[in-house]
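Submission sheet (multi-component)
Chains listed below:
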Amino acid sequence: MFEQIFENVRQKSPLIHNITNYVTVNDCANMLLACGGSPIMADDLEDAVEITAICGGLNINIGTLNQRTVPVMFAAGKRANELGHPVVLDPVGAGASRLRTDTALGLLEKVRFSVIRGNISEMKTLALGSGTTKGVDADGADRVTEDNLEEVIWFAENFAKKIGTVITITGAIDIVTDGERAFCIRNGRPEMSSITGTGCQLSALTAAFVTANPERVLEAAAAAVCAMGLCGEIAYRRMTDLDGNSSYRNYIIDAMYRLTPAELEKGANYEVR
Amino acid sequence: MFEQIFENVRQKSPLIHNITNYVTVNDCANMLLACGGSPIMADDLEDAVEITAICGGLNINIGTLNQRTVPVMFAAGKRANELGHPVVLDPVGAGASRLRTDTALGLLEKVRFSVIRGNISEMKTLALGSGTTKGVDADGADRVTEDNLEEVIWFAENFAKKIGTVITITGAIDIVTDGERAFCIRNGRPEMSSITGTGCQLSALTAAFVTANPERVLEAAAAAVCAMGLCGEIAYRRMTDLDGNSSYRNYIIDAMYRLTPAELEKGANYEVR
Amino acid sequence: MFEQIFENVRQKSPLIHNITNYVTVNDCANMLLACGGSPIMADDLEDAVEITAICGGLNINIGTLNQRTVPVMFAAGKRANELGHPVVLDPVGAGASRLRTDTALGLLEKVRFSVIRGNISEMKTLALGSGTTKGVDADGADRVTEDNLEEVIWFAENFAKKIGTVITITGAIDIVTDGERAFCIRNGRPEMSSITGTGCQLSALTAAFVTANPERVLEAAAAAVCAMGLCGEIAYRRMTDLDGNSSYRNYIIDAMYRLTPAELEKGANYEVR
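Outcome: structure written.
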């Protein structure tokens, strides 16, 4: 199934509008190109609404949000909804500040998202309306492990059901669920967290996968997670004794550029519950 | 001739002020350093006008323009004109939104540019005052091929003549013309379009080449296109089975860092019409 | 001593809030991760003050300052001071424009900095209240060499003493002083200046080192300079005939990722005066 989903990305080359942070924006653009999609960035109020209209999907990332760009996220999200375009939310740092939490919660209220992708701390913040995120990474107390996996799936399914959106929670084990079914994904490498923006890249990737497969949002979101994790594994095998997080970043994007749909099908490591 | 032009860049190390997008800005800075130039970025109204004055040339790229930065483009362009500095325009996405089209057209009216570099869709938008750009890439219907080459040269020469500016249209075949003569350039690789910002980098490079060779703007702009394409070829030869667009990006900048003026002279693949 | 200082960075993983330029922000984030720290970027007024509070240290870099972000620098700096967090200033381009000079001088007046890191031209601007910086690089007339080393140390010590802040002046020879003692550091490679943002990365690194070693600010700042320079040396040894400044950038961050505290102790090349 993931083979066809990825094939659709390569064939349709979805144009994705990204309203995203300036820290990892270049990597997001190259990751979108690597998977077969096409990126465009626009965050001016007037510009963004028009750009959204010519795109196939929208990716909203609140990583370096500000008073100027927050209204743009709402306006572009609304426009994308009107046009029936898939919209992905990456609530970077929700729980770490009032502005981030409020913006994420406000977006959740005003915009229909196809997928929300974040770490468990960010997701708990969205579900509970407040949080204790330490920066942009998940709290230690919040990590997803085999021990608390059932509990996290239960949380994710309930949250997904409640808001009617596919939820992607990434960590040591990744969970993607629409509230009915949950994909537990064991692709990826722990070293990916030592690169800035692998989460942001996955959100952009998710937007491309979902946009190219609008009828299968859950499966497309899960395929994106598997693809990202698999590329992390492939890239890791390439690492020499001299390579560190900067080369690893390049190798992961390179791996996505080279990855075939058949390889994704074969390398995806998940179970459906 | 290109040997001397590139030698001048290496010798004079032109300081280039870039008002550019936050997606590819880091690559533009490293590309400018790679060619022997020196980059500075400033986009605050007050700051930019002063920074322009201490620089040798100005590169305006509207990739992630907004209401705050658009007036800065006009003000810095005006200041650069007063000082007789070369100014390059990269009309990213002109035709994709009203703000982009209007800003590019407005700049064309108020600022004298030495060179405008864009894809054929963006250029048609500027020439016609409206367009149908699909995102930041040229429309399929607009691609420059051997079949429509004559027509595109005719268009470029007329547009260049009309506005009195050197026009660089990049695609499978690149055209650089001042309205009298046209360089048709066949350097480069199709894979370069799978990297974000190769066009932006070329615009920054063009600013450096023209600033170091103010008496030969047409030739300098053509040399920059050849240099960028040649580096794309050199970098491509270095690619392994594991490399993708992210490593390719690094290798192209690396190639520019290593390229000698003599190698540019030898590797430049163009005809003058 | 540097071994323990670096060990503390790896162990404590300091969370560093960066208000920095959009040119080199990604490299700063990856460098912070490479050294064992954790980066977060926030530059909205409301957001930044809260984010600063959850971080261990603050890094202010005025590289692409604007009217919106300048007040954020003051507010976050004030908040960090209230909380007793280390604050580092990178006065990029002070002397190159009024806004940059005034902002740097204003910050110096209103915010207590643990360390200020810049090139000699920027530092002279701060000390004298005006300057002649050519862009973001040190003026040729200002370079630190063996010939003027004594003079520069004298200047740095006096400035450090006067403002009660550790001063890091980077160049061919780096000087780190608190006004009492001066570290003269001879790590590094001249090729590092052909990469955009090695200075910005060092400032971010300095923030991490100082935050993890608040009782030894001078030594921590010196250790950061040695670590950066040493990584420049290690990375340089890895360069092939095809590599240029883009790969060199990656290799330096990679080297920091791999560097052990013991290797830093052994490779640090400095004398204390």
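Remark: Residues 2-272 of chain A form a domain with the UDP-N-acetylmuramoyl-L-alanine:D-glutamate ligase fold (CATH 3.40.1190.20).
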